UniProtKB/TrEMBL annotation:
It comes from Finegoldia dalianensis. It comes from the Bacteria. Keywords: Hydrolase, Protease, Serine protease. InterPro entries: Class_I_gatase-like (IPR029062), Peptidase_S51 (IPR005320). Belongs to the peptidase S51 family. The keyword Hydrolase applies. Signal peptide: none annotated. This is Type 1 glutamine amidotransferase-like domain-containing protein.
């Protein structure tokens, strides 16, 4: 299995794929003619999923890919998920609310079915986060940061051991429940752990051991920038 972990696959004008840091070329290295299985974050928001998915499909086409099939997974297909996976050469794990998607993935037993998949997986935001063995579900909704019942550490798909925090530029100064999301929540949670925070346009390819674009390592309460736009670095460096 090949895996690409991203924050957002779209260009700023939302009309095509983001070509920053060679992202489009990287996908072309793995697939050109696409049979896609698009797996959402929330199966009960089908209209929203279909709308976003159609934009993503169009972006692939405008970026030089031939889309032979594009199947948006729904709960009605739960019993044929294994067949859908075997027919795909690209699986997209959509963005959304991390715990909601995580529960959905467990409900459809995606971890079991995807483990022997041989094609390309692209994670988008929450999809990248839930790809990990151990997911860090950074609080994002009101009440989550202060709730003693909100579980920040979840069991993921285990298709990578990389813990990703997407949209770093956008979230690093956010506040939630009267707390600074980074300084008061995530940095304390990083002791004994390592999070890879990526900005939109950056991506990580675990099977190549590479990071492309703006990326920061958050570890033991500290933040260190390890890669810049237009650059690539080894994923498992001494950070």
């Amino acid at each position: 299995m090949k895996v690409i972990l991203t924050s957002d696959i779209m260009s700023k004008d939302k009309r095509q794929l983001n070509s920053l840091n060679g992202f489009v070329d990287k996908i072309h290295e793995y697939v050109d003619d696409i049979n896609c299985l698009y797996i959402p974050s929330n199966p009960y928001r089908q209209f929203l999923t279909n709308t976003i998915s159609s934009h993503h499909k169009r972006a692939f086409e405008k970026s030089g890919f031939t889309v032979k099939s594009w199947d948006v997974f729904s709960l009605f297909q739960k019993n044929i998920l294994n067949k859908l996976i075997s027919n795909a050469n690209l699986i997209i794990l959509a963005g959304g609310h991390v715990p909601t998607q995580n529960k959905f993935f467990h409900d459809i037993r995606l971890k079991q079915y995807i483990k022997d998949y041989k094609g390309l997986v692209i994670g988008i935001s929450a999809g990248s986060m839930n790809s990990a063995t151990k997911v860090y579900a950074q609080p994002e909704k009101l009440g989550e940061a202060k709730s003693p019942h909100y579980d920040r550490f979840l069991e993921g798909l285990a298709i990578t051991d990389i813990t990703v925090l997407p949209h770093y530029k956008d979230i690093k100064d956010e506040r939630l429940d009267n707390q600074r999301i980074m300084e008061d929540v995530t940095l304390p949670d990083s002791y004994g752990r390592k999070f890879y925070a990526i900005e939109d346009g950056a991506y990580i390819v675990p099977n190549e051991n590479k990071i492309y674009g703006n990326c920061y390592v958050i570890k033991d309460g500290k933040v260190k920038k390890i890669c810049n736009t237009g650059q690539s670095v080894n994923l498992r460096g001494d950070y």
